Amino acid sequence: MTNRLKIGEFSRLCRVTVRTLRHYEETGLLVPDIVDMETGYRYYSISQMQKMQGIIRLKKLGFSLEEIRDLYEESDHEPGIRALEEKMRICEEELLRLRERREHLEAMIDSHKKLERMEKIYIESLPAIIVASHRAVIASYEEIGRLCYEVIGPEMARLGCECVQPGYCFTFEHGGYKPKDIDIEYCEQVTEKGRDSAIIKFREMPAVPQAVCMKAYGPYEGLHEHYVELFSWMEKEGWQCTGNPRCVYVDGIWNQEDPSKWLSIIQVPAERVDTKSEKEV
User: Are both 186 and 155 inside the same structural domain?
Assistant: First the structure.
């Protein structure tokens, strides 16, 4: 046993865990040189350290344990050009996905920073967009979450809809505000028009030059109070509604359990009353 290493010694020298070595033994990738049947002690040879380093190197190149085992069953123990080129292709795909993920994360961070800087009520323009929409009559605002998860989300996934990042989804009410039996239309911005289904309709929404916007925190049942506050402010400041108000859902039950921290943004297409009067003159 003088030229053999116990499993603990071998793991320290190779910088792998004993658990990893036992897993490699179970899969047949690296079996101890000797197993003492009386004590159960496992001994590895010095030459097996080279194989262990080869396994570590191949793992870093993206080869699975099964692929590595197959390589060691061959004579050269090294991947060929085709295998290496395939790993290169997979690396490129992973890099592309990571770049896209980073862009999405940066966009979300910028969006949150923008929201933090904004006043409670502010003015901004809304760009022209393509949306996937669903119109339904719901009993109350509490039904919005269920509608999204059980109906709209699965259908958009089935249709292969690609949403923008960060996401932009909103609702507006047909026929004005009602406390119950609400005729509501849910819209989510997508990258391109798809084919309409019985549940989802695609349409283009024109740009809005000016919208009076307000951040509203709290559960959806309290949205009407925020609408009243915003329209009172608009009347006082000389703004007039020119289109359907949108309620944009930023934070909700999907990422925030506390309803008091749910964030919605009310966007009201509007123009100043005095500006309109000057145009008519």
Answer: yes
pLDDT value for 75: 65
Task: Clarify whether residues 14 and 33 are in a common domain.
Answer: yes
Per-residue model confidence (pLDDT) at position 114: 64
Q: Say whether both 57 and 144 belong to one domain.
A: no
Least confident among 144-148, 160-164, 242-246: 144-148
Are 196 and 202 in contact, with CB atoms under 8 Å apart? yes
- Residue 228: closest CA among 245, 211, 210, 243: 245
Give me the domain span that covers residue 131: 121-280
Q: Report the distance separating Cα 272 and Cα 243, nearest Å.
A: 13
pLDDT tens sequence across 193-208: 999 999 999 999 999 9
Closest by CA position to 266, among listed 237, 239, 228, 240: 228
Asked whether the predicted pLDDT for residue 59 surpasses 80, the reply is yes
E strands, 146-280, in order: 169-173, 182-190, 201-205, 208-217, 239-241, 246-251, 263-272
Q: Is 216 exposed, middle or buried (0-12, 13-18, 19+ CB in 10 A)?
A: buried
- In the chain, how many domains are there? 3
Q: Are residues 68 and 21 in the same domain?
A: yes
Distance (Å, rounded) from C-alpha 226 to C-alpha 248?
13
Token output for 268: 């009201």
Does residue 114 lie in a domain region?
Answer: no
The H-or-E segment that residue 35 falls in is strand 34-35
Q: How far is CA 275 from CA 81, 270, 280, in A?
A: 71, 11, 9
pLDDT surpasses 70 at 65: yes
**90 and 147 part of one domain:** no
